[in-house]
Write a structure and sequence with these properties.
Layout lengths: L1 H13 L1 H16 L2 E6 L2 E6 L5 H21 L15 E3 L5 E6 L12 E8 L13 H9 L4 H11 L5 E3 L2 E3 L5 E4 L8 E10 L5 E2 L2 H15 L6 E4 L11 H15 L8 E6 L1 H4 L7 H12 L4
Parallel strand pairs: 4-12, 5-9, 5-11, 11-12
Antiparallel strand pairs: 1-2, 3-4, 6-7, 8-9, 9-10
Helix pairs in contact: 2-3, 6-7
């Protein structure tokens, strides 16, 4: 309770108009108790017990006005400052339940054929990540499809559309290109492989905000007529992509908020954060402020 009062007072002080009105109000009240007179070429000053009513009343009017303006113009999103990733943080998305939680994408429970797990790849869809335990794609594949690697490689190539270019002599696709795997790779959940990063010849793999947003759009598009209403996804764009976990999270959230207004079939989205990244989100509850402020700007409750 005391913490909320302190936060409220801080916000009040930071509001310039209300601060100015309140300051003048306090000054008027103080001056109303002062008596300043010129007598025989000398100024006399004294405090009086009865204030000058017009000045005293004006001071309180200014203070009341400052409080009223502050109250009606403040933005106080409902934020649980004690929220922790371990217990899961729920965000105020209209029509979609978005949860940020710690875990590993390959160890998720409660998966079924109405749930899709998102696995990020690069724009060449080369299979080196399939056996890389440090990547979300490799971790999931090695956990569930270890004995089917050759079949999985073939399935991915068959599902890919015509390439849009090449990188270092290898066919490449646009960022955001997404495929939905079929049987036998649809258990324990449906699987979406999406091009979240770009392979740069002679350099490394990188991700950009635009590629993350393109992936989010494709995820909604690919699941539209597949009876999929739940999504589980890692922080696409982070890790090998080079985006910080915090940046990746914000881009994902902004994409989800935007495309959830167009596509209405997804009811729940879980963003899974690795334990090593969770330590970097000491103030992760602040994402609730970001999302709530976006709601306020759009005139939503």
């Amino acid at each position: 309770m005391l913490g909320k009062i302190v936060d409220l007072l801080k916000a009040f002080v930071k509001a310039h108009l209300t601060k100015l009105l309140a300051t003048f109000g306090v000054l008027l009240i103080c001056v109303s108790f002062c008596d300043l007179r010129l007598a025989r070429d000398w100024w006399s000053f004294a405090f009086v017990s009865r204030p000058r009513l017009e000045m005293y009343a004006s001071g309180w009017i200014l203070i009341a006005l400052a409080v009223a303006i502050f109250w009606w113009t403040r933005r106080m999103p409902r934020v649980d400052r004690s929220a922790k990733l371990g217990a899961g943080i729920r965000l105020p998305f209209a029509g979609v339940e978005v949860v940020i939680k710690t875990g590993r994408i390959e160890q998720l429970c409660d998966l079924d054929n109405r749930t899709a797990v998102v696995l990020p790849a690069n724009t060449t869809f080369v299979d080196d990540c399939l056996i890389d335990k440090k990547s979300a794609l490799g971790s999931y594949v090695l956990e569930h499809f270890t004995s089917q690697l050759d079949s999985l490689r073939t399935a991915i190539q068959k599902l890919l559309p015509s390439s849009t270019g090449d990188i270092g002599g290898q066919p490449a696709w646009s960022p955001g290109t997404t495929i939905l795997l079929g049987a036998p790779f649809d258990h324990p959940a449906r699987v979406l492989v999406t091009a979240a990063t770009v392979r740069i010849p002679g350099s490394s793999i990188t991700a950009e905000p635009a590629s993350v947003l393109a992936c989010i759009r494709s995820i909604f598009e690919k699941t539209g007529y597949q009876k999929i209403d739940q999504i589980r996804m890692p922080l696409i764009g982070s890790g090998y992509g080079g985006l910080t976990p915090w940046s990746a999270l914000l881009f994902i959230l902004l994409g989800l908020r935007h495309y959830a207004k167009t596509f209405h079939h997804i009811k729940q989205i879980e963003i899974v954060v690795l334990d090593r990244d969770a330590a970097k989100f000491r103030d992760v509850y602040r994402v609730q402020y970001v999302m709530s402020l976006e709601e306020s700007r759009e005139g939503k409750p």
